Amino acid sequence: MGVQELPESVFKLCQNTHGWNELGDLRNYTTTDAIRQAYIKQWGNAKPSRTSNAVAIIRKFRDSIQSGHMTITYNPELRVYHIGEDLGDYQFRDDNNRVGEYANVRQVKWLGDVPRDTLTQSTRNSLGSTLTLFSLSKPVMSELLAVLHGDVPESPESPDDDEALVQLKDQTIDQSHELIKDKIQSLLPDEMEQLVAALLRGMGYRTRVSPKGPDRGVDVFASPDGLGLTQPRIKVEVKHRSGSMGSPAIRGFLGALRDGDSGLFVSTGGFSREARYEAERATVPLTLIDIDDLANLIVIHYEQFDVEGKTLLPLVKIYWPAE
Fold this sequence. Notes:
By secondary structure, the chain is of the alpha/beta class. Helices cover 37% and strands 20% of the residues. The chain folds into 2 domains: 10-157, ph1033 like fold; 189-312, Trna Endonuclease, Chain: A, domain 1 (3-Layer(aba) Sandwich). It has a 5-stranded mixed β-sheet. The longest helix has 27 residues, at 159-185. The protein starts with 9 loop residues before the first strand and ends in an 11-residue tail after the last helix.
């Protein structure tokens, strides 16, 4: 195969798939819904989006890959990409004929290996998807084939590659931020009050959440001693799934504040321009926090969260190479 003779499609298959052995022969399922129901029966449907992704990948593995398509998989121990040509033959192997632990297999003619270190940063980024099976773009295909045939880029690292890495980092941070906001938005109103209290405890305060019922505009109370005998005395109003807050809500909250109090108004639905103006001209300290601000504060102080707070919003730390 010449370097310029690109195949119609290139698919990357990750090694972390469980192989769907429990589904048996994938050719037995004539519709997507049949695959979905079989998948749910085996592994449940606690996360519907993950189920939909898995079903789509199963269909791709069985139907989308055709004879002549390239298949790429990665060996993280050796840091090489194995590149092969699919022979167009999906097979189901019984227990005595499995390939390793896998019953659902495709025949591939392996063409060679491409070391990851020989690729540009942009191509490495494209190959780093966590999806089990996904298609690659033509520029990535071209570079992989070029390296496979001995045309190694003169300088795998370039200023453009550095910029691509920075962009990938920014995209990853932005995506994680939105996912955290999704988790926050999924909480119930009383759980949101507990989360705000956990945040304040992570910031060094002692808190008290008001019991259900009339709270006169105060859902959470926080102070250094927990009794309000030392300042700041923070009174918090939490509005969750209530839409954007307007100026009347701000004025009502201000009416619950007394001399020496500081106000914190949390609204996952945001605030109107009039509401923000009302807060700016307030005669007592008042801070408005929308869901974006809340997510940022949680990330900053999460390591200081107690067990209750981390249980409400489980997060994991992701490490990134230093500059």
